[in-house]
Amino acid sequence: MSSFTFQTAPVVHFGAGCIAQLPGQIEALCGSRPLIVTDKGIMNAGLIAPVQKALTDAGLAVEIFDQVVADPPEAVVQNAIDMAKQTRADIIIGLGGGSSLDTAKVVAALAINGAQSMADIYGVAALDKGGLPTILVPTTSGTGSEVTAISIITTGETTKAGIVSPHLYADAAILDPALTLGLPPDVTAATGIDAMVHAIEAYTGRHAKNPISDMLAIEALKLLTNNIETACFDGANMTAREAMLRGSMLAGQAFANSPVGAIHALAYPLGGIYHIPHGLSNALVMPHIMQFNLTTAAPHYAELADALGIPQGGADTPERKAQQLIDFLEDLAVKVKAPRRLREVGIDSSALPELADAAMLQTRLLVNNPREVTLEDAQRIYADAW
Ligand SMILES: NC(=O)c1ccc[n+]([C@@H]2O[C@H](COP(=O)([O-])OP(=O)(O)OC[C@H]3O[C@@H](n4cnc5c(N)ncnc54)[C@H](O)[C@@H]3O)[C@@H](O)[C@H]2O)c1
Ligand SMILES: [Fe+2]
Q1: Res 158: pLDDT
Q2: Concatenated DSSP letters for 50-108?
Q3: Do 147 and 228 fall into the same domain?
Q4: What would the mean pLDDT of 134-139 be, rounded to a whole number?
């Protein structure tokens, strides 16, 4: 077996009600002036008030930045950094979906004296030092951002770019499934499929696939596929919500070490240019890229099909098992009512060449795909997905 390196966030608190650990965790990290980084959706969902009260009751002077938006643009991140400096925040709390957590991570890294500018930290390992302590509290079961060393920011008008650095790992993640009970069905479906894609792409990664990520990806995919329907249609079901949050975290730990590939590369332009939610973007291109990948990834897809116990009437070859996995995932996406065609989400066929050009810029991700993707391949895959 070849050598590998595996990293993850050092502390994870998990369980219904474990948000109660937040004040103590802030204290453990010597914080006294927390800045909560979040968005208006979280404020409106009533998730912030109890957190704010718990912190105030603990004697902490809490500030809130609630201006995060989906696919956070640089300007919004910069505003949050400015607020962290003005309020002399000494610890950053990310509360929300991936957009809030990704923003919080960059704020923590750059709200210190002598920090690099945002333009200098894109790509892998360009961020040269850690910043303020960070605690991340996810409210979606999707990105796994609470345990990844990645932030995805929208640069310029439309391009989504990744910042990848071990300095972005949170000091602690607090995963309280009670915070996800009110997540609407469409967001539950899209973010859940995002997490499934993290597991699948980690398992088939070309360069950094490793035994720990493999184990995490399989367990994540079992939890997510077994519980996504219940979580979507019986949102108050705590058992299903717990399983989804645990699954998305495990998938995050997997892909933080064996990065995602072409599904994400082709999803990003849909988010950057058309503001299609990240999970839905993945869901729309997923089956078409998996189909494209079959020539090289069939044995790994077959292993996942076996692990999930997908009924295999007559599927006696890796190719047939892999096809059954693709069909099973497509069926699940239909069941949770995720749109299945680019044309259903307002994309005109004339836009496909621009999408393919943009996807080819995601070289950081494309290199991980089990099969090389050319511009012509990307065009064909988008045409299939249209
Ligand atoms: N850092 C990583 O490792 C990583 C991985 C994958 C994706 N991402 C990025 O994360 C972002 C997507 O994150 P996301 O899919 O979690 O969505 P999001 O953070 O954009 O949130 C989507 C919407 O759901 C709302 N919401 C969140 N939790 C809620 C709750 N409990 N109840 C009610 N409403 C709630 C939010 O207010 C928002 O309106 C994208 O920018 C994507 O590129 C990052
Ligand atoms: Fe993702």
Answers
A1: 83
A2: HHHHHHHHTT---EEEEEE-SS-BHHHHHHHHHHHHHTT-SEEEEEESHHHHHHHHHHH
A3: no
A4: 98
Provide the 3-class DSSP secondary structure of residue 67: strand
| Index of the ligand 1 atom closest to the CA of residue 39 | 37
Asked if 123 and 171 sit in the same domain, the reply is: yes
- Per the structure, the count of domains in the chain is 2
pLDDT tens by residue, 327-376: 999 999 999 999 999 999 999 999 999 999 999 999 999 999 999 999 99
Instruction: Point out the ligand nearest to the CA of residue 151.
Output: 1
Helices (H), 236-317: 238-257, 262-274, 278-308
- The verdict on 137 and 72 lying in the same domain is yes
- Write the CATH number for 231: 1.20.1090.10
Q: Compute the average pLDDT of residues 270-288.
A: 96
Whole-number Å distance, alpha carbon 268 to ligand 2 midpoint, is: 9
Cα of 96 vs centre of ligand 1, distance in Å, is 7
pLDDT at 1: 53
Share of the chain above pLDDT 70, in %: 100
Q: Which two tokens stand for residue 169?
A: 């790992």
> Do residue 306 and residue 158 come from a single domain?
no
321 C-alpha to ligand 1 centroid (Å): 32
Which residue range is the domain that position 45 belongs to? Answer: 12-180
**Which ligand 1 atom minimizes the distance to the CA of 187?**
24
How many angstroms does the Cα of residue 101 sit away from the middle of ligand 1?
8
Looking at the structure, tell me whether residues 124 and 72 fall in a common domain. yes
